Amino acid sequence: MRRSLPIAVAVAALVTGTVYAAGPAGAALGAPVSAPVSAPAPVPAPVPVTDFNADGYADIAVAAPAATVSGRDDAGYVTVLYGSIHGVDSAHPQVISRASAGVPGAVVDYDAFGRVSAARDFDGDGYTDLVVGSENGPTVVLWGSPVGLKKSVALSLPPHNGPLAAGDINGDGQADLVVGTGLVGVEFGPISRSGTSAGRTVVPFGDEEDSRYDFIVGDVTGDGADDILTTHGFEDHGHGTRLWKGGKDGSVTRIPGAITPSSKGVVADFDRDGYGDFATFKFGTSHEDIATLPGTVEIRFGSPSGLSTRKTTITQNTPGVPGVDEAGDQFGLALAAGDVTGDGYPDLAVGVPGEAIGRTAGAGSVVLLKGGPKGPTGKGALAFSQSTKGVPGVSERDDRFGEAVQLADVNDNNRADLIVAAPWEDAPKADSGAAWVLRGSKNGPVTQNIATFNPATLGTPAAEAHFGASFAR
Q: In this model, does residue 202 exceed pLDDT 70?
C-alpha cells in the first residue's frame, strides 16, 4: 500500500542554490505564553514515517559506525531492515557502506560511515530517502523507490562530522536538511537527483567557541514551519540550549534566550494543543559529568512564541517510574516519541543505558512513559531490560541496552513499536551490538514475539561494529 508521507528533513550546509536571508528576531525564549482565545489551536502535525519503499510499513536504518569494512578499521556501514505485516523483515537486510556499488566515496579507516543520518522524502516523489554522513567522506543521499533504497549521489557539501536533522523549515511541504559545521545550515528541498538543493540559508552562531552538539527539529510554534533546537557546550562546559524559528519566507532566526543545558532530545506535540513540545536530557553546566548523572528528562511545552515556561520534569524518582535515581544511570540519554498505545497521544521512550540490573553495572534498560492530555507522566510507565521475561539475551556488564531508541510502526497496526539498541552487546563478538523490536499494544510494548537481530544473525561485519549506535529518523 503506497501512501503519502509527511515531509521533513535534515540537511548539510553549503549546497548551491538560492540563498534566503534571515528574518527578524522572535519573542524571548522562556516567556510564558498561551494560544489566542479568539483563534483555535493548530491541528497537530502528522508524525513523519520512514518508509523507503512506500508500502505503508515503517523501515529501520541501523548504524554500525565502528565496523571494519573491506579491511578498513571503523569504516562503518548502515543496515536497512524493512517493515512488513509480520514486523521487521530481518531475513532480507540491506547493507550499505562506501563499498556498496554506486555509493560515492572511498572506503577508508575511521570514516565512521553512518554515524549521522537523516531520513525523509528529500526529492518529493513519495518515497523516504536516506542521507548518510561520516567523519571524512562525502555526505550522500540514497533514494527511496518501490524496491527500497536504490541509487545514491553525493551532496554538494564539504566533508564534516556535524549533526544532521530533518524538517520542513520553510513550511512549503518539501523536506529540508539541517546540518552543522560550526553553524546552522539549511538546505531547502526538494533536493535534485544531482544532489543540489532548491535553496539555502546559513545562520552562524554568535559565539565562536560555543560549539554545538545536536540538532532537534520540530514545529514548536505551530505555524507550519519547523523550528531548530541546538544543544551547546565547549570542552567540559555545557551551555544553554537555543531555539531557532523557521519561517515561511525561508528565514531561520534565533529566539533570544536559552534553556538549561541539555543533550539530544525530540520534539512532539505531547498534549495535542498544536504546538511541538521539546523533551530532552537535562545535564546542568558540566558536559563532562554526563557519565555520572542519574538522569533527568525535561519536557518544555511549545507555544506561538516558542518554548514556554510550562514544563514537566521526570526522573526515576518520579511516582510510577520504575527504578531509582542512581549515579550513572543516564535516564533520558536517548529519547524517542511515538504513539505506542494507539490513544492518539505520543508516548516517550527513555533510554537508561547506564542502569545497573541487579549487580550488573551498565547493563541498561529502557522506560516507556505513557502520554496523555498533560503529556508523558510516570503513571503506568513500563521498564524493559535483557533481564525482563521474554526479552532475548542476558543483562551483561556495559552492554548499554537503551543507548539508542526509536518508536516506529513497522507492522502498520497504528501502534508504534519500541526499537532498542545495545551497541556494546557482545553478539557474538566483543562490542558488535544488537537491536530488539517490541511490538506496540493498547497497554504498551509487549514481550511476546520480540524480534532481535545483530551482525551475526544478519551476516554483516561484527567485531566492535557498535551495531545500533544510532537509528536514522
A: yes
Task: Count the Cβ atoms, other than its own, within 10 Å of residue 183.
Answer: 14
Helix %, strand %, coil % for the chain, to 5?
Answer: 0, 35, 60
Residue entry with cell 570514516: 111
Residue 315 CA to residue 309 CA, distance in Å, equals 19
Report how far apart, in Å, the C-alpha atoms of 130 and of each of 14, 139, 158, 257 are: 19, 11, 18, 33
Length of the chain as a residue count: 473
Beta strands in 99-196 (DSSP E): 116-120, 129-133, 140-142, 152-154, 164-167, 176-180, 183-188
CB 302 within 8 A of CB 243: no
- Tell me which of 41 and 299 has the higher pLDDT: 299
Residue 306 grid coordinates: 516558542
Beta bridge partners of 347: 338
The answer to whether residue 7 scores a pLDDT higher than 60 is no
Residue 168 three-state SS: coil
* Rounded alpha-carbon distances, angstroms, from residue 239 to 13, 231, 284, 463: 23, 7, 8, 36
- Please classify residue 430 by burial: count the beta carbons closer than 10 Å to its beta carbon, then call 0-12 exposed, 13-18 middle and 19+ buried: exposed
Strands 18-19 and 60-64: unpaired
Q: How far is CA 307 from the centre of its chain?
A: 20
Tell me if 95 sits within 8 A of 425, measured CB to CB. Answer: no
Model pTM above 0.85: yes
Task: Provide the mean pLDDT of the chain.
Answer: 88
pLDDT tens digits, residue range 264-289? 999 999 999 999 999 999 987 776 67
What CA dihedral angle connects 166, 138, 213 and 318, to 10 degrees?
Answer: 50
From 423, 424, 431, select the one nearest 471 (Cα to Cα): 423
Identify the residue whose cell numbers are 559529568.
289
pLDDT of 33 reads 34
Give whole-number Cα distances, 288 to 234, 283, 328, 332, in Å.
10, 10, 12, 16
Query: What is the distance between the alpha carbons of residues 281 and 259, in angstroms, rounded to a whole number?
Result: 12
